[in-house]
């Protein structure tokens, strides 16, 4: 049942058709038609990923320091990298928050949760959910994102890790861009499962999970230990040949990209037409029910390992039983 049918569930302001289907590319036997549609939807339209690739190329050419500059650690280029990351985070998360939650450009259309962002609640630093989320995102988040990027740039600049040029292997250049989100999804699932071990959940991950009702600033709002675990996905560039554009795309995908996937809305509407996919109900279910949907739909680890919530009442009952057992 979805909002488009004129019906609303008791739990949600909006949800897509339920139960959730399986959009993963890891189906057996493979379906060439399905794979072609998946590729076209993600890479042959102005999708979230294509926008991030375009932004990565522009940032590599005009904003970030060159690899030659990064051959030795120096305050200037490190500060420049931090400043660019800070600006990208503020502009992307800030613009999304302004449009959806201040300007209310879409009202409640395609918004999962009826509620607005919390204010006047001592659960949050500054008694304000958005200000609390900004504190963690722009503080620990941007600092650690920059640290991983700086170390990787230094390794690349000094030939300690394999670096490619665009002309040396154009096929791998394109293929690596397609595979990086899939790698990130695989890495995220297992790091996320680890963070739900009761001790780590209580001491670390619970800070992020205060955001039951998510917004753009929620995506990158984490405990510093969680930032360390989450951003270790970037270490793939230490062992697999890549180009600086791949690194920057990965940085944007993990940092500002988290604001895009946590808007709390399924799509951006322009003239009543869905123009850009943003948040997913799949991950919204995780923020509501905790012990489910640790990964994303593209990498079907939740389906493989029995932690999938398809949006049904039966799945909610199963998830609550698992949570009770884990935290007993």
| Oligomeric form | single chain
Main sheet attributes: strand count, strand direction, barrel closure:
2 strands, antiparallel
Number of strands: 2
Strand content: under 5%
SSE order, one letter for each helix or strand: HHHHHHHHHEEHHH
Mean pLDDT: 94
Low-pLDDT residue intervals, each spanning 5 or more residues: 1-8
Query: Main sheet: which strands, in order across?
Result: 1-2
Instruction: Kindly give the count of domains.
Output: 1
- The DSSP helix count reads 12
Structural features, described:
Strands 1-2 form a two-stranded antiparallel sheet. The protein has helices at residues 32-43, 48-62, 75-102, 129-157, 170-195, 198-209, 224-231, 244-254, 256-261, 281-289, 301-304, 313-326; strands spanning 267-270, 273-277. The radius of gyration is 20 Å and the shape is globular. The longest helix is centred in the middle third of the chain and has 29 residues, at 129-157. The chain has one domain. A hairpin with a 2-residue loop joins β1 (267-270) and β2 (273-277). By secondary structure, it is an all-alpha fold. 53% of the residues lie in helices and 3% in strands. α2 packs across α8 (244-254).
Short key terms for the protein model shown above:
328 residues, mainly alpha, single chain, 2 strands, two-stranded antiparallel ribbon, 53% helix
């Amino acid at each position: 049942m979805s909002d488009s049918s004129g019906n609303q569930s008791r739990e949600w302001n909006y949800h897509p058709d339920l139960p959730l289907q399986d959009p993963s590319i890891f189906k057996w036997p493979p379906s060439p038609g399905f794979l072609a549609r998946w590729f076209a939807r993600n890479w042959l339209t102005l999708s979230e990923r294509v926008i991030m690739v375009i932004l990565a190329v522009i940032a590599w050419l005009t904003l970030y320091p060159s690899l030659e500059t990064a051959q030795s650690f120096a305050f200037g280029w490190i500060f420049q990298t931090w400043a660019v990351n800070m600006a990208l985070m503020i502009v992307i998360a800030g613009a999304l928050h302004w449009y959806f939650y201040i300007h209310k450009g879409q009202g409640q259309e395609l918004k999962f949760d009826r509620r607005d962002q919390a204010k006047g609640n001592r659960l949050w630093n500054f008694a304000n959910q958005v200000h609390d989320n900004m504190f963690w995102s722009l503080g620990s988040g941007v600092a650690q994102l920059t640290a991983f990027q700086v170390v990787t740039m230094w390794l690349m600049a000094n030939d300690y890790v394999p670096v490619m040029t665009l002309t040396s292997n154009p096929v791998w250049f394109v293929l690596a861009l397609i595979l990086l989100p899939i790698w990130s999804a695989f890495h995220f699932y297992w790091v996320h499962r680890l963070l739900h071990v009761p001790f780590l959940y209580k001491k670390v991950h619970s800070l992020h999970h205060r955001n039951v009702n998510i917004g753009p600033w929620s995506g990158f709002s984490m405990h510093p230990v969680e930032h360390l675990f989450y951003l270790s996905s970037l270490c793939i560039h230490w062992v697999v040949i890549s180009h600086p554009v791949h690194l920057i795309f990965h940085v944007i995908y993990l940092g500002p990209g988290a604001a895009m996937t946590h808007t709390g809305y399924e799509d951006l509407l322009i003239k009543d037409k869905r123009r850009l996919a943003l948040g997913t109900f799949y991950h919204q279910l995780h923020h509501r029910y905790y012990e489910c949907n640790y990964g994303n739909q593209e990498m079907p680890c939740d389906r493989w390992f029995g932690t999938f919530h398809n949006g049904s009442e039966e799945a909610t009952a199963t998830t609550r039983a698992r949570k009770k057992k884990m935290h007993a």
